[in-house]
Automatic annotation (TrEMBL):
The keyword Repeat is annotated on this UniProt entry: yes
Pfam families documented for this protein: THEG
Record's protein name: Uncharacterized protein LOC108557527
Sequence segments annotated as region (Disordered): 19-59
Stored SMART domains: THEG (SM00705)
């Protein structure tokens, strides 16, 4: 065996082979044969005991009938114990009181003073209808962007003085002229603005097409 083989043989993977080899050496030294080695798969030897007597067919049937009769009996019921609730009255004596309690009670609810209450929404106070807002209140009522903007005074019909001095270039003058368009000879309203092909005027519809052209009667 070379050096590498010895190293691998001494590793933990060969522990079982080494133990088995050592056991065989001890067995030979004691004079034990290979057939007498203990084998776990064979199991321990049966301990001597009383031999079981075979039952007859009638005894087996009797045991089966007894087992069936025992299993066929109903299960025992264990009802709950009655709870002693003390003195109690019958339903007939309690019925008038129950009917009285089931009716809704009349309650007086005073009007809420909260301005955000849903019942007070939409109501306007009489003094608010007679109030006249001041100029400052009207100014604050507008959004802030309108208050900061300055109104530009625009005079209708006025022209910017720079536009009066401006000199038009030849290209601007050329672009300002409208494009000439082809004049149509037939400018009057036509009797049939959408033309119809002459083949459609001579077409004779078949019986099937006339049947399909009729609307469906729906009930």
């Amino acid at each position: 065996m070379d050096k590498r083989g010895k190293v691998s043989y001494n590793s933990p993977y060969y522990e079982y082979k080494r133990a088995k080899k050592a056991y065989k050496k001890r067995a030979k030294s004691r004079g034990r044969s290979k057939s007498k080695e203990p084998d776990k798969k064979r199991g321990a030897s049966k301990s001597p005991g009383k031999s079981k007597t075979k039952k007859s067919k009638e005894e087996k049937l009797k045991e089966v009938f007894e087992w069936c009769a025992n299993r066929a009996q109903p299960k025992k019921l264990f009802p709950p114990e009655k709870i002693n609730r003390g003195k109690h009255a019958e339903l007939g004596t309690l019925e008038p009181r129950l009917l009285k309690l089931s009716k809704a009670r009349w309650l007086y609810v005073s009007p809420s003073q909260d301005s955000m209450n849903i019942n007070n929404l939409g109501k306007v106070k009489p003094n608010a209808l007679k109030y006249k807002p001041t100029f400052r209140v009207l100014e604050l009522a507008q959004p802030s962007r309108f208050r900061t903007m300055k109104e530009e005074i625009v005079e209708p019909g006025t022209v910017d003085p720079m536009a009066l001095i401006a000199v038009i270039s030849p290209r601007v003058k050329e672009l300002s002229v409208p494009k000439p368009r082809a004049t149509s000879t037939d400018t009057d309203y036509r009797e049939f603005p959408i033309p119809i092909s002459p083949g459609a005027l001579k077409y004779v519809a078949t019986a099937r097409i006339q049947e399909l052209a009729k609307p469906i009667d729906r009930k």
